[in-house]
Amino acid sequence: MLIGAMNHPAAEIAQELEWMSAMGLDFIDLTLEPPAAATTKVDGKRIRELIESRRFQVVGHTAFYLPFASAFEGVRRASVDELKRCVDVFAEVGAKWMNLHPDHNTPMHPRSYFIARNIQSIQELMEYARPSGVGLMIENLPGAFNTPDELGELLDPIPELGLHLDIGHANLMVPFNMTESILARYGTRLRHVHLHDNKGGGADLHLPLGTGNVPLNEAIGALKRCGYDGTITLEVFSPNRDYLRMSRDLLLKAWNDVKN
After folding, report:
1. Residue ranges per domain, the chain?
2. Buried-most residue among 83, 114, 150, 207 (CB within 10 A)?
3. With contact defined as beta carbons under 8 Å apart, do 105 and 70 qualify?
């Protein structure tokens, strides 16, 4: 199991790698977003050099607000084009997987409409990304793509598409944490994990581990039962990095203590 963190998109990537390396993390969850980490601003070759010099690994993350299921074809097309630029950068820095946040912002349209638009865009991106060796994975999102059935509307039609499980998201706007249910159906498709705490409901708080009600031990058990031993990003969004360090230690303890 490898533990990493995400760069703040308003900070220079080199500076972010510096503190991550000093903390003893294993990889960077590289998000390509404005203002400082947009695809038009980053130097992929230089980032790869920095990553390799620290013996880091890298996972690709994209902006959660790209409307690639938009009812406006020009907007959808522009979003896909931006995601293609992300593919190019991630290929250059050495990432093997890039995440996507399914889009459901299509007012006055039925669910079937934005499902079809998501599939259209993902298939276009898949065709573009395949020669570069960058795989695509979808992240579960509260409200529309947070149960096995909802995720299955995208995963089942596209067998090549991976799963990016956000355990914190799996705790939001649902009657109970969906981690075990999602992994029971799609654990073989799991490619990356996000982990953070919250208190349920609809607030995506990104708290340190142990400060909310996300069932950490149960989630770790579910990951182990499906044979996962890959990258886990701690999405603890606090300016005080001691909370991230504490969460790292709690994750390591839980990983060592919890059995399959």
Report:
1. 2-257
2. 83
3. yes
Of 8, 12, 193, 206, whose CA–CA distance to 99 is shortest?
193
Residue 260's Cβ-count burial label (10 Å; 0-12, 13-18, 19+) is: exposed
Q: Taking the CA atoms of 251, 1, 25 and 204 in sequence, report the sign of the dihedral they define.
A: negative
Rounded mean pLDDT of 135-145? 98
The answer to whether residues 86 and 95 touch, using CB atoms and an 8 Å cutoff, is no
Pairing of strands 2-6, 27-32: parallel
Q: How many residues does the chain have?
A: 260
Q: Kindly tell me the burial class for residue 132, based on how many C-beta atoms sit within 10 Å of its own C-beta (0-12, 13-18, 19 or more).
A: middle
Task: Tell me if residue 163 falls in helix, strand or coil.
Answer: strand
2-257 carries CATH number 3.30.230.10? no
Which among 249, 230, 231, 253 is positioned nearest to 241, based on CA atoms? 249
Spatial neighbors of 242 by CB under 8 A, at least 6 apart, are none
pLDDT digits (tens, 9 = 90+) for 89-116: 999 999 999 999 999 999 999 999 999 9
Tell me the per-residue pLDDT of 185-207, one tens digit each, with 9 for 90 and over: 999 999 999 999 999 999 999 99
CA torsion sign for 195, 199, 202, 204 is negative
